[in-house]
Predict the structure.
Amino acid sequence: MIEELLPETVVAVEAHGEDGVREFGDGPLYPEEEALVARAVAKRRREFTLVRSCARRAMEKLGVPPQAVLPGERGAPTWPAGLTGSMTHCEGYAAAALVRAADLASLGIDAEPHQPLPDGVLSAVALPAEQERLRGLAAERPEVHWDRLLFSAKESVYKAWFPLTRKWLDFSEADIEIDAGPADGTQGTLRARLLVPGPVVDGCRLGHFEGSWTVGRGLVATAIAVPHG
């Protein structure tokens, strides 16, 4: 799901459902990773291991020796020199996307269960204008849980933003407009207008991010790719 949302230069590896868990979930952890989940509950340990197995498979596909993926500042993953990437996981799914830093400035991915957000969450993460647009999307295509899709998009925007700025980005600091796509389709595009000064990439300050979304297999997934200037 994730790979189809990203440029061809990006390598994405996904583990979906029981088959994916069996293929990727038992991969060994590096000692420094093991220390981070030594006391974690089984679910946390399984997700931690699964998404890192995906990341190491992506490293191999890019010709980079597999290595530990440790959380850095604000929990953002620390990638091998010359690479940038993003990871995501939810119940029954994990994915990692990696690209050579020369090919993309940054990227962010997120996957969520394709279900409505819990009560109270939308008002906490969505601007009034976003909520109004969601109502229009829901009237047009009620089969899509647009509130969850917006939440996922906010997560992808932040994951692409942070490596470029090393700063926090609040939910209220990006206004995301979602294109519904074709009436019979499962994919579309999105645009995130940054409401605070954006990152400087190759000498140019960015005012927005462009991305894509897809729905299928019980999931909603979003991706943001930030090109070089």
Remarks:
- The chain has a mean pLDDT of 94.
- The chain has six helices and ten strands.
